[in-house]
Every structure is written in structure tokens, then in C-alpha cells.
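Subject: design request, 335 residues
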């Protein structure tokens, strides 16, 4: 259930209420700001609980049941969009960010080349996989810690922040030493052990939609992270499996307005994995921004044909620069 507090309630009232509710064995999460505080009770109270009893608590104006199964991710609990601030880089709630870089980190030179282009285009987030979830065990599996080091060095040199995929709970501490945003890949979206561990650390999490996950599945996975106390979650639409086999995946742009209606969390579109085809990345990147996404993830490489992974969907630097140019025009048109 959600407790809506009276407009005059102070932070002290919120703290006192939470203490009281916790003492009753209920698990609570506060939200909102002065004048509109809310407290979500997510565990402990079942549907047989009489809500009117909670309405009698001090400073409580109204109590309602959650309509959605995802509680902390929902707009009911958090009516305004969330803005994440990652080392001064803001995303969500009107702040748009591009994340770009190769599918896999291959060498320091390769990452330096990408980071230079990002800095020149005013892009703040450098991506690159160091631990790669490959369909085949015989494909390149990534450089591991060396790859993380390379990303960190380039980020420091060009004043960027980084995102890279975490595949296992045991990698979290190591990755957090080097990387600013931990990506959960599509294949791990329902790895609940990993999600729970990520919920216990403060690092921002970039949660990619599973290959055949519904919006509800994605939001329930986000809920695992939020429920453990980490509010820094970004959702990513990266295409889903459909009957259409021409493109690698079907980029579901319905996801952007739908997830925005259901949730306060930022939504990023990945047209690289969403299409799997280089020539489709620019049009779908433009469409992603036009649909209202809070950001884009793009795979770029100086020589895409030579990329160690996902070369068919990787774009070269001139294409990346031309996408950035059109995004600036679309951004203006949308404002
Ligand atoms: C990636 O970002 O390189 C990646 C493996 O993505 P996904 O999990 O969406 O396939
Ligand atoms: Mn990739």
C-alpha cells in the first residue's frame, strides 16, 4: 500500500512513521518531497489489512493499495520521472544522454579512438564490454579486468563516465572499482541472484530488456533492485524476438511511451542490438529520440568490419557523428 502524507508533513514525520511501521514488521520505502511525501509499504501487509487503520496514523492523509505488481518502479508511488545524477551526468526527467563505444573492448588504442570522438561530440558516457555474454563459447569472451582498466583510463583522459556489462554477482566489487554504470544484459534480465546483489550496492544499474520479456517482466526485474535499496535503475529497450527474422531483433519503440506511463525510471533505446543491421541504426536512433527516450546506446568502432563482436550492427565514426547532428535537430524540434 501507499501512504500519502499530509502537505504539512516534515522529513522528521516521515522518519518517525517509518520507524513505527518497521516496528510493526512492515518493509517501507519513502519517496516524494516536502509537501508531497509518500511511503510505500511493500512487504508485511497483506490484502486483508484494513487500510483505514493506517489512515489514522499521524500525518497520513490517504492510503491506497498498489494497482501494479511492480511497486517501487511504478508511477503510483513516484509520480514524477526520476533523474539519475551519475558523477554530474544527469539522465531522465528531461535529461537525454548518448552512451557509445564498441561492443567489446579490444585494445587501449581502440577505446582511445572512440573516447576522442565522444568527447568531440559532447557525449558523456563511454560503453564497452569487458565480460561478454556470447551465444557461442568459441566466440571472443572479452578482455576481463584489463578491459575495465582500459575504459577507466580513457574515461579519465576525456572526462567521461563508463558503462560495462556485469555477468555475475562475484564481478560486482571488481567492476565498481572501474566502472560507473553496471549493465545487466538481456540474457541476465531475470538472473534474480544478480539483481538482488546489485540492489545491495549503490552503483547505477542499466537493465536491458530480456529477449522475450514483457514490460511487466522488465519492471519486476527492476523491482528486485529497487526493493533492496538501490534506486538508481535505468531501463533499456534493446529489441525483442518476434516472428520477423530479417532483422536480428524487433526494436519495440512502443516500450518508450508505455514504460514512461507505467514507471518513473529513465528509458534508453538501443538501436544497435534492436536491429542488428548497421544501416538501420541511424533511422531507429532518430526514432528512439522522437519517441521520447531518455537516451540512446550505440555501438561504434573506427573500423566496424574488424570489430571483435557485433560487427554487423556497429557503425563507423562518420555515421555516429551524423546521428549526433540529427539528434541535435530533433531535440530542438521536440523542445
Ligand atoms: C551489449 O550491450 O553488447 C549486449 C550484449 O547487449 P544485450 O544484452 O542487449 O544483447
Ligand atoms: Mn553488442
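Subject: RE: design request

Done. Sequence follows.
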Amino acid at each position: 500500500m501507499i501512504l500519502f502524507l499530509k502537505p504539512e508533513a516534515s522529513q522528521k514525520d516521515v522518519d518517525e512513521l517509518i520507524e513505527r511501521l518497521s516496528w510493526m514488521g512492515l518493509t517501507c520505502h519513502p519517496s516524494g518531497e516536502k509537501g508531497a511525501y509518500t511511503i510505500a509499504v511493500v512487504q508485511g501487509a497483506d490484502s486483508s489489512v484494513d487500510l483505514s487503520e493506517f489512515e489514522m496514523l499521524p500525518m497520513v492523509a490517504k492510503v491506497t493499495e498498489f494497482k501494479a505488481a511492480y511497486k517501487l518502479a511504478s508511477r503510483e508511488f513516484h509520480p514524477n520521472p526520476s533523474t539519475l545524477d551519475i558523477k554530474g551526468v544527469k539522465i531522465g526527467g528531461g535529461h537525454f544522454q548518448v552512451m557509445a563505444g564498441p561492443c567489446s573492448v579490444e585494445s587501449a588504442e581502440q577505446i582511445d579512438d572512440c573516447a576522442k570522438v565522444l568527447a568531440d561530440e559532447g557525449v558523456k558516457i563511454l560503453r564497452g564490454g569487458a565480460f561478454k555474454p556470447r551465444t557461442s563459447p568459441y566466440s571472443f569472451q572479452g578482455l576481463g579486468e584489463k578491459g575495465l582498466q582500459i575504459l577507466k583510463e580513457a574515461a579519465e583522459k576525456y572526462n567521461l563516465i563508463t558503462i560495462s556489462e556485469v555477468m555475475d554477482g562475484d564481478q560486482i566489487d571488481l567492476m565498481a572499482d572501474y566502472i560507473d554504470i553496471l549493465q545487466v544484459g538481456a540474457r541476465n534480465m531475470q538472473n534474480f541472484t544478480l539483481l538482488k546483489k546489485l540492489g545491495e550496492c549503490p552503483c547505477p544499474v542499466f537493465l536491458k530488456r530480456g529477449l522475450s520479456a514483457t514490460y511487466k517482466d522488465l519492471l519486476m526485474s527492476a523491482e528486485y533492485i529497487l526493493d533492496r535499496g538501490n534506486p538508481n535503475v535505468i531501463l533499456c529497450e534493446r529489441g525483442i524476438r518476434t516472428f520477423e527474422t530479417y532483422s536480428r531483433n524487433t526494436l519495440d519503440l512502443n516500450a518508450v511511451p508505455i514504460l514512461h506511463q507505467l514507471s518513473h525510471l529513465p528509458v534508453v533505446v538501443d538501436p544497435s542490438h534492436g536491429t542488428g543491421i548497421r544501416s538501420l541504426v541511424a533511422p531507429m536512433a532518430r526514432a528512439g529520440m522522437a519517441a521520447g527516450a531518455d537516451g540512446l546506446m550505440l555501438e561504434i568502432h573506427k573500423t566496424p568490419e574488424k570489430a571483435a563482436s557485433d560487427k554487423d550492427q556497429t557503425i563507423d565514426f562518420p555515421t555516429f557523428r551524423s546521428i549526433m547532428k540529427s539528434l541535435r535537430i530533433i531535440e530542438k524540434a521536440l523542445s
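The longest strand covers residues 36-43.
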